[in-house]
Automatic annotation (TrEMBL):
Group of enzyme by EC: lyase
Function: Catalyzes a trans-dehydration via an enolate intermediate.
Family stated for the protein in its record: Belongs to the type-II 3-dehydroquinase family.
Origin superkingdom: Bacteria
Protein name: 3-dehydroquinate dehydratase
Catalytic residues as annotated in Swiss-Prot or TrEMBL: Y22, H104
GO terms for biological process, alphabetical: amino acid biosynthetic process; aromatic amino acid family biosynthetic process; chorismate biosynthetic process; quinate catabolic process
Family annotation (CDD domains): DHQase_II (cd00466)
Length: 147
């Protein structure tokens, strides 16, 4: 089965973007880390990033089709700032019935108040936050436990 790992806006800047908050590893490093975690858990990895909200909606719909075909282990979604703004992402997750883990590199609850609310959380099976980029590997292991 496929683990679909989706990354939203500004995550292409990992490595140089606020390294005190997000660390020094690049998105490519994160993909390599996810590749190892998926190999260890018997998943095929599909790893993507976009800065566009509608593209994330389209990808969630794609995940829904894979889910229906029995080929999806689940989705790990770091929606970036769209976490805090997007009813469209909330609706897409609800509308597809996919297993989804919400992920944040930083502990959003220890940061600005506008990061405390998530439109993703009520539609997610689980939430991972504050473990740095290692949270991606932890979320893959978590997904394996949900199969
Ligand atoms: C983030 C947290 C969000 O608040 C922020 O907008 C991001 C990254 C994280 O991974 O910690 O872009 O999702």
């Amino acid at each position: 089965k496929t683990a679909l790992i989706l990354n939203g806006p500004n995550l292409n800047l990992l490595g140089t973007r606020e390294p005190a908050v997000y660390g020094a590893q690049t998105l490519q490093d994160v993909e390599a880390l996810c590749e190892r975690a998926c190999l260890a858990n018997g998943f095929k990895l599909d790893f993507r990033q976009t800065n566009h909200e509608g593209t994330l909606v389209d990808w969630l719909h794609e995940a829904g089709k894979l889910h229906t075909a029995g080929k999806l282990a689940g989705v790990i979604l770091n929606a970036g700032a769209y976490t805090h703004t997007s009813v469209a992402l909330h609706d897409a997750i609800k509308g597809t019935g996919i297993t989804l883990i919400e992920l944040h590199i930083s502990n959003v609850h220890a940061r600005e108040a506008f990061r405390h609310h998530s439109y993703i959380s009520p539609a997610a099976k689980a939430v991972m936050a504050g473990f740095g980029v290692n949270g991606y590997a932890l979320a893959v292991a978590g997904l394996a436990g949900m199969q």
